[in-house]
Design brief:
Layout lengths: L7 H9 L4 E5 L3 H9 L4 E4 L3 H4 L11 H12 L6 E5 L8 H14 L3 E3 L7 H9 L4 E6 L5 H4 L9 H17 L3 E5 L3 H10 L4 E4 L7 E4 L1 H4 L17 H17 L4
Parallel strand pairs: 1-2, 1-8, 2-3, 3-4, 4-5, 5-6, 6-7, 7-8
The structure holds 3-methyl-2-oxobutanoic acid.
The site of 3-methyl-2-oxobutanoic acid has 11 residues, from strand 6.
Length: about 260
Amino acid sequence: MTGAKISATTIRNMKARGLKIPALTAYDFPMTRLVDEANIPLILVGDSLGMVVLGYPDTTRVTMAEMEHHVRAAARAKPNGLLVADLPYNSYQTVESALANASSLVDAGAEAVKAEGGREIAPQISAIIGSGIPFLGHLGMLPQHVLEEGGYHVKGKSESEHHALVADAQALVEAGAFAMVLELVAPHVAKELTEHLPIPTIGIGSGPHCDGQILVTPDLLGMLPWYSLKHVKPRLNAAEQMRLVVEEWKQSVVNGAK
Ligand code: KIV
């Protein structure tokens, strides 16, 4: 790897330095190592692993034990990029559970944690940061709320959602988050937040104006051909390539090759 080890402060300062922040997810040793070898500064062990690795219908079934297992695997790659882990559903309802679970993810090898929400989880965020663990915010469409919300909808189109996003973003800044993910935020609101906030915004499906962009790596690689997302155009058709290679190899075995 090239360059000095990336910290939460490095990521935070990239905004002031005018540097865009590319971020990707990874869930195991090889994926983390490959993403890191491409010098991606922020690598997220996201609870999206529930869908893209474990086959759950959404992220609400992911447990702390599953997150710890995957964080340990990713951390064995010893990435130069900052390794962030998601606090899963129901793991940060109180200050006590947020602190205990954030610290378990750090014990597993995470260097920062992320949780979904703004003002309603401000006490948990302050406690996590107060204990010395850097915190990445997540606003907009919150996948852990997908069942209550009945789907993945763009946030910030109405005035009330716009105001709520501004207030939640301010709460994250005041609590001390080093950056925040904006997921499916109306692009004009993402642009406004990016222009006014002192910390970086990292968008996913929120338009081009954020300070950085994050994607779920299997979506970028075309590993999941069973659904398509408006905000990702796969750069590789890994699923089709795997099918072809497996088929060719199978035929060679069936035909008696060694
Ligand atoms: O879990 C995840 O992968 C995420 C990204 C989509 C930001 O939260």
